[in-house]
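Sharing a chain and its predicted structure for anyone who wants a worked example. Both blocks are below, sequence first, tokens second.
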Amino acid sequence: MKRLLITLVLTTGLTTTWAAGSDLVMAAYQAQEGAPFDAIEGKTLWGRAGQEGRQCADCHGQDPKAVGKHATTGKRIEPMAPSVNPERLADPKKVEKWFKRNCEGTWGRECSAQEKGHLLAWLSQQ
């Protein structure tokens, strides 16, 4: 029972951390765009081919709950889904840093705030 309680407290705390950080990021993107975010569109973007046929799933995998592997370096990439990796989307600065880097590498440009919001809406449901 004690172990269950400790697990519950830790899980709830991590989820709250993710939710607070994610809410800040989503609110910032929402303020820029004004339009609502669509998780279905986020899933579509995840699999959309960009520059040289690259897509998010090439490195992060089709299932954001699973460990990914960088297509070029082979480096392990921790799961993107907050349900299995609550700290993944908790830091707004890191989220923005990785969106900038990965959007440029995948699609040859920065993602719009709308695209980022769609992707986060989908990832938050995973």
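Comments welcome. Confidence is low (pLDDT under 50) at residues 1-18.
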